[in-house]
Specification:
Layout: E1 2-12, E2 31-40, E3 43-49, H1 50-53, E4 61-72, E5 74-79, H2 88-95, H3 100-105, H4 110-119, H5 122-138, E6 141-147, H6 154-166, E7 171-179, H7 190-207, E8 213-218, H8 225-237, E9 241-246, H9 254-261, E10 265-268, H10 274-283, E11 286-289, H11 291-296, H12 305-310, E12 316-317, H13 331-342, H14 346-352, H15 355-360, E13 378-381, H16 388-391, E14 398-403, E15 406-410
Parallel strand pairs: 1-4, 5-6, 6-7, 7-8, 8-9, 9-10, 10-11, 11-12
Antiparallel strand pairs: 1-2, 2-3, 4-13, 13-14, 14-15
Helix pairs in contact: 5-6, 7-8, 9-10
Bound molecules: zinc ion.
Zinc ion (ZN) is lined by residues 78, 80, 245, 320, 322.
């Protein structure tokens, strides 16, 4: 099956070097004005100006973008999409002045979602996840990284990872987050829970290929630096790559730990200082910035994206979609926050949400840009210029979404 995409006001290819983009590379989107693209068997065969591509169309099915922006699907490299219920009640409590930490201490927060998620069966969880999956598609996202972490027993964690494996047509990459929180029944014996994660869950997850990455909530009030190091080392020994929730609520040295362990990413980094940034740079760890959670928690402390870009880090942007601190699946909203609150340029933000995100998931060679040989995950946005995507905030710009050349969403 052959497709020809024509009529792109801008074909935003993000073509460039085969590595996560840094510095000025983040501003080069490889835009082809009046661009066109040929797709065969779900992969991109060729891109170029319309006059070069048109003679090659032959018997291909033609998709006319109607003078709109065509770009790669967003790659959302940090989400928690499998959970039961939601926490709209806590949203209201926080508005009335109760803090996230106080809610958590009273048994709310992650632990309340854990109780509801344990009670839900796999079918109900998959139904909910597929509903959210449609929300991602509507916003132009074609790949998500998806974490477990609301089960916190071996069976419940495996249940979540199986659901992640069945989400569709949205593409998902699974991360094991058994160390998301100490569950209620282990409050007085945390060492036993850490042993359970390390000695039972991790080996099972690795042996059954239930996840490619292992993550942890590294924070003094949740898992300490030493506890995190132990769990992550065990994960790495089993062949899993590492991601960390790092320096979200305090500067605890989690960025340095991510560097020491050679993690793929360190995520959040709201409190990371110059030394942490330097450590990430030295170790080639990608920062995953999550401005949606800063916004939704009513905080003003955004991560210092400019310092990270200036230091040469290959910045990634993601939604952190979850029922507590960041209930948005909208990458366009994240781009808007990145531009207005973190002073990233629209081009830097787009790079962070596509090709850099793909590299952080080790999918750089197949996803994140529109280049010959790559999977044809692309979106026609109802916009004439890519800068209009973060500019018209609070809208859903995606008009048509394709995954491997197949229609996945149409407005
Ligand atoms: Zn998260």
């Amino acid at each position: 099956m052959k497709l020809a995409v024509i009529g792109c006001s801008q074909l935003v290819t993000l073509a460039g070097p085969v590595h996560a983009r840094t510095g000025l590379e983040m501003r080069d989107l490889g835009v082809i004005d009046d661009g066109a693209m040929i797709i065969a068997e779900g992969r991109i065969e060729r891109t170029g100006p319309r006059r070069e591509i048109e003679p090659l169309i032959g018997d291909a099915t033609v998709i006319d973008a109607g003078k709109r922006v065509v770009m790669p699907g967003f790659v959302d490299a940090h989400t928690h999409p499998v959970f039961a219920g939601n926490r709209a009640n806590e949203f209201e409590q926080r508005i009335s002045g109760t803090t996230y930490a106080e809610i958590a201490a009273a048994g709310g927060g992650i632990r309340s979602t854990v109780r509801q998620t344990r009670a839900a069966d796999e079918t109900a969880l998959l139904e909910a996840a597929n509903r959210y999956s449609t929300w991602f598609l509507r916003n132009g996202t074609t790949t998500i990284e998806a974490k477990s972490g609301y089960g916190l027993t071996p069976e419940d964690e495996y249940k979540l990872l199986r659901v992640i494996g069945r989400i569709g047509p949205l593409r998902s990459v699974a991360t094991f987050l058994g160390a998301h929180e100490i569950p209620d029944e282990y409050r007085s014996r945390r060492v036993d829970y850490i042993r359970l994660v390390t000695n039972e869950m991790l080996p099972h997850v690795a042996a059954n290929h239930l996840a490619e990455f292992c993550d942890i909530f590294c924070e003094p009030a949740v898992f300490s630096i030493d506890e995190s190091r132990g769990i992550l080392r065990a994960a790495r020994k089993l062949g899993l790559e590492l991601r960390l929730h790092a320096d979200q609520l305090s500067n605890s040295g989690a960025a340095e730990l991510a560097s020491e362990l050679g993690a793929a990413t360190a995520d959040h980094l709201e409190h990371t200082e110059t030394s942490g940034i330097a450590a990430l740079k030295a170790a080639g760890v990608q920062p995953v910035l999550l401005p949606g959670s800063v916004y939704a928690l009513g905080s003003k402390r955004y991560p210092n994206a400019r310092a990270m870009i200036n230091a040469g880090l290959a910045v990634v942007l993601a939604t952190d979609f979850n029922p507590g601190s960041s209930p948005t699946p909208s990458m366009p909203t994240i781009l808007s926050l990145a531009c207005t609150q973190m002073k990233m340029t629209p081009a830097e933000a787009l790079t962070a949400a596509t090709i850099n995100a793909a590299h952080s998931l080790r999918r750089g060679p197949s996803l994140g840009s529109l280049e010959p040989g790559k999977l044809a995950d692309f979106v026609i946005h109802d916009r004439g210029d890519y800068r209009e995507i973060p500019y018209f905030f609070g809208t859903e710009p995606a008009k048509t979404v394709y995954i491997e050349g197949r229609l996945a969403f149409e407005r």
